[in-house]
Amino acid sequence: MRYFCLYAICIFSATIVQMESSEPSTTVNKINRITGEVDSNILLVGMMGAGKTTIGKSLASYLNKNFIDSDHEIERRTGVNIPVIFEIEGEAGFRKREAEMLRELLKIDNMVLATGGGIILNKENRELLKQSGTVVYLRAAVNDLWHRTRFDKNRPLLQTLDLEAKLVELYDQRDPIYREIAHIVVESGKQSVHQMVKLLAQQLAYPPLG
């Protein structure tokens, strides 16, 4: 087991070196079919299991935008999944990579970006998000989050004996922060993905005053 771990760390370290120079997987600008113009970025924030990836993909397709998932991009660049990064570098190491990835991805135009649930814990990340597009908070009830994540082994922070208690803890910590930086807040879980996308498209086309 020790040799395997050492080998994994070596391979992981080698792939990390390539991360700095790799190009994002999707960088082509497109036209929004609603306005006929190139629009600003739509940046999705929310808890793990809130539906950022699922809704983000559908919203990007509907608005003819690029879709990028920041967590998936980290995994693609490093060649390993997020639990391995947590195991080798700890949460602090992952958060550093997450912040670096966010800065790079926000250079891309006309995209829907699904961010990791904890990306808003970093003040610099919050400021970058608010300045770089329309921040949409997909808000979901803890019970819905529990149902969606209870069998998911790819979320290190949720690998606990009491998943519900952990979700409540994270929700209480993060919900005020999501609300603070969001331009739009929508409840995910009460509607179908199709309904959510239509609602979001309407709100993005006619943002609330003030």
Question: What does this protein look like?
Answer:
The chain is an alpha/beta fold and 210 residues long. The protein has a single domain, classed as Rossmann fold (3-Layer(aba) Sandwich), CATH 3.40.50. The chain is built from eight helices and five strands, in the order αβαβααβαβααβα. Strands 2-3-1-4-5 form a five-stranded parallel sheet, sandwiched between helices. α3 crosses α4. It is globular, with a radius of gyration of 17 Å. The protein starts with a helix and ends in a 5-residue tail after the last helix.
Total number of domains: 1
Instruction: Determine the structural class based on helices, strands and strand pairing.
Output: alpha/beta
Number of helices: 8
Gyration radius over CA: 17 Å
Helical percentage? 40-55%
CATH class: Alpha Beta
List keywords for this structure.
210 residues; alpha/beta; Rossmann fold; five-stranded parallel beta sheet; 5 strands; 53% helix; disordered N terminus
Please outline what is shown here:
The protein contains eight helices and five strands.
List the helices and strands and how they pair.
Elements: H1 2-19, E1 41-45, H2 52-63, E2 66-69, H3 70-78, H4 82-105, E3 111-114, H5 123-131, E4 133-139, H6 142-149, H7 163-181, E5 184-187, H8 193-205
